[in-house]
Amino acid sequence: MALSSDSTCTNHLYSSQDGYETLHLEKVDPPPPPHSVAEVLDKNSCVFPQWMQGKWEGLSIKGDEFTYRDEANFVTYKGKCLQSVDESEQSGLKFLLYLQTDCGTPTFNCALFQRRDTNIMEFQLGKFQLSTPFTIAAS
After folding, report:
1. How far apart are CA 14 and CA 111, in angstroms?
2. 77, exposed or middle or buried, with CB in 10 Å at 0-12, 13-18, 19+?
3. Are 90 and 102 in contact (CB under 8 A)?
4. Per-residue pLDDT tens for 46-59?
5. How far apart are CA 100 and CA 14, in angstroms?
């Protein structure tokens, strides 16, 4: 495609392929499809630490499975641990989670767990939710 040197569409424009400025279009192969959720779940998993296992107030953890009932927003999240991000118990344990609501909405979230006492755990679920998979290291 050729363009003229000004808005007249005649100056320095000789044909549709020869002019003041020429643009060439070429086919670009599409990027590979993103990983499917099933592939991400198959390739990545982690197990929550032993001290986190069991039933807590509004939260249940068993192996790599996670269930959280958000009473304030009337939402239940169920899913699994995909990757341990930080294992420093000083600043809290951070995990990447794949979660699904009872309505079927899938998300990827970060979560922070801090052991406060033998029977007290602080838990924070990341508000920012990724609705599409992204590259994470295989464990």
Report:
1. 62
2. buried
3. no
4. 899 999 999 998 99
5. 59
Positive or negative, the Cα torsion across 85, 96, 135, 46? positive
Q: What are the two backbone dihedrals, phi and then psi, of residue 37, each rounded to the nearest 5 degrees?
A: -60, -40
pLDDT at 84 over 90: no
CA distance linking residue 130 with residue 53, whole number of Å: 26
Q: Which two tokens stand for residue 29?
A: 């192969």
Q: Where are the domains of the chain?
A: 1-30, 37-125
- DSSP per-residue codes, 51-94: GG-EEETTEEEETTEEEEEETTTTEEEEEEEEEEEE--TTT-EE
Angstrom distance (rounded) from CA 94 to CA 125: 10
CA 22 to chain CA centroid, Å, is: 41
Structure tokens belonging to residue 84: 């341990």
**Amino acid type, 117:** D
